[in-house]
Amino acid sequence: MRYLFEEYAFDTDRRELHRGSELVPTSPQVFDLLGYLIQNSHRVVSKDDLVQTIWKGRIVSDAALTTRLNAARSVIGDSGEEQRLIKTLPRKGFRFIGLVREICLLADAAAIRDTATSTKRAERARLGPLSPAHLSIVVLPFVNLGGGLQQDYFAEGITESLTTDLSRIDGTFVIACNTALTFKGKAIDVQQLGRELNVNYVLEGSVQRGASRLRVNVQLIDAETRAHLWADRFDKPMTDLLEMQDEIVATLANALDAQLIEAEAHRAERSPHPDAIDFCFQGRHLRNKGITSENLAQARCFFERALELDPANIEALVGKASIDLSTATTFMVDDRDAHFAAAEATLIKVLSMAPSHARAHMSFGILRLFTSCATQAIGEFEQALALDRNLATAHAMIGFAKAFIGRGAESEAHIQQAFRLSPRDSGAYRWMHWLGIAKLILGADAEAVDWLRRCLEANRNYTIVHFQLAAALALVGSLDEARASVRAGLALDPAFTIRRTRGLMLSTDPTFRAGSKRIRDGMLMAGVPEG
After folding, report:
1. How far apart (Å, rounded) are the C-alpha atoms in residues 91 and 110?
2. Of 118, 160, 114, which Cα lies nearest the Cα of 141?
3. Residue 460: its pLDDT value, please?
4. CA Rg, the chain, in Å?
5. What is the C-alpha separation between 486 and 465, in angstroms, rounded?
6. From CA 487, how far away is CA 528, in angstroms rounded?
C-alpha cells in the first residue's frame, strides 16, 4: 500500500518514504512507528499499543519512546513543538492528524511482484521487524578536534553530506542527521546506541586542522559486538573547504559502500535463515572480489537463490545482469550474444520497476557500449551519475566510451576523476584496464603497457588483460615479455582464442576500428591462439 499526505508518499511494500521525488532516509524502527500511526490515523494510539506492536511488549522507557517519536516527526518535517502531523495527547496517547490518502499498488509497476509475496511483505511491514534492517547505520557527528567555528561547520557538513550520500547505497537505512546530531558531544556506548536506534553499524569520525593540512579519521563499528570493522585516515592539503568536503565525502561514501557490503556478506554467512537480501550481499561481495570465472559463478548462484525467494528483488536482478555483462565483455565465453540478451531482458525489467536505480542505468550503459551504441551508453552513464554523484565507475565508463567515438584523448580525464572519487576502490583495476585499452586505440602503446601492468598488479586473475598486455608488449617490440604474458593468460583460461574478441566492441569510428585491429595484430605477434 501507498499512503499520501502533504508532499510525502509512504510505501509499505518497498518500505520507502519519499518527499516528492526524493527518498527520505528512515531507520527501520522509525519507519514501522510512522507506519503504525498512519495506518491507525482514525484513532488515538496509546503508549501500550506502540510498545506491543513495535517493541513486541519489551520494556521501553519514556525517553526512548520520545526519541523514536521525535525521529518519526523529523523525517516528515514535523517537530515536537509544532506537532503538525503527529499529535501528542496528554495521558491518552498519540495520533496522526494529517490528511491521508490510501492507494492500492496492485496496478502499479511494483505489481510485477508475485501477489503472495507482496501480501506477505505488506503484512511484515505492518507488524514491523524486531531485528535491524540490513545495512542500517547511523553517522555520528564528526568531532572537531581543537578547531574553530569554521572547522565546526566543516565537521557538521561532512556528517550531513555523508548521511545523505550513504542513503544512496542500495538497500541502506541511514538514521536521519537531525536524530544523529542529538548525540553530539555525548559519551556513546555503541551497543546501547545500536539497540536504541535499531541499527547494525555506527560510523564515527573526527576532523583535525594543522597549519597547512586537514586530517579526517573515521571508523566503522559493529553495533552488536563493538568490533571495529574498518578504519582509515585522510590527509588533505588545505584548500577550499567546500571542495574538500565534497572530495572527502565522496571518498568515504565509496569506501564504505564496499566495506558495508563485505560486513553484511559476513553477517549473512552466519545467519541460520538467510533471506533474499542476505544472498544479494553475498553475491555482491563475491562480485567485488574480482572478475574471475569462479567468483562470477558463485555470485550468480547467490543472486539466483535470492530470486528463488523473491522473484522481483531489484538488487538480485541487477546483480544477475552484471554477471552476464561481465561474462560477455571479458571474453570468457564464445556465445556472448546469449549473455547480452539475458542482461538486456533483466535490465529492462529492472528499469520498469525502479527507473531511478543508478547502478541499473550504469549496467544498461555497459550493455549499450558493447552492442554498438556508444553515444547512448554515455547518456546512461550520465543518468547514473545524476542519480548517484559518487558512482565512480560511471565516470570511468564515460572515459572508456569516449574511445569508441573517436574522443579517446578525453578518456584519461574521466578515469582520473573516478580515482579522485574513490582512490582505494576495489574495482579500480578495471579502470586501469579501460585506460590501457584507450591508450592502445590511440597508438600510445608504451602508456598502454604501463596501465595494463598496473591493472594486473592489482588483480593477477583478470584473464583478458594478460592477452591485451601481450599485444601492447608485442607492439613496443618486447616479444619475450609478450609471450610470457600469453602463457600467464592461458594458464588461467586455456580455451581462450582471438576469435572470441571478434565482433565485440563494434564502432564505426575509424580510429577505434584501426586501434582494435592493432590489438588483434599484437595478440597474433605475441602468440595468442587465433582459433
Report:
1. 41
2. 160
3. 92
4. 25
5. 10
6. 9
Chunk the chain into consecutive blocks of 10 residues (it has 531) and report each block's average pLDDT, rounded to whole numbers: 82 85 85 91 86 83 85 88 86 84 47 34 39 79 79 81 81 80 86 87 87 84 90 78 74 84 87 87 90 91 94 93 93 87 94 91 94 90 90 95 94 94 87 96 96 95 95 97 97 92 73 92 95 78
Q: How many CB atoms lie within 10 A of CB 354?
A: 18
User: First-to-last CA distance in the chain?
Assistant: 56
At residue 208, φ and ψ (nearest 5 deg) are: -135, 130
Domain 271-389 top-level CATH class? mainly alpha
The architecture that CATH gives domain 136-261 is 3-Layer(aba) Sandwich (3.40)
d(CA 444, CA 76): 55
Do 248 and 234 form a contact (C-beta atoms < 8 A)? yes
**Same-fold call for 136-261 versus 429-531:** no
CB-based burial, 109-128: b 16+ in 10 Å, e otherwise: ebeebeeebbeebeeebeeb
CATH 1.10.10.10 fits 2-127, yes or no: yes
137, β-bridge pairs: 174, 201
Report helix angle 314-329 to 276-289, nearest 10: 30
Give the pLDDT confidence score for residue 59 in this predicted structure. Answer: 80
Smallest Cα–Cα separation from 138: which of 186, 83, 80, 66? 186
d(CA 2, CA 24): 15
Per the rule left: phi > 0, alpha: psi between -120 and 50, beta: everything else, 505 is left
Topology annotation, domain 429-531: 1.25.40
Structural domain boundaries of the chain? 2-127, 136-261, 271-389, 429-531
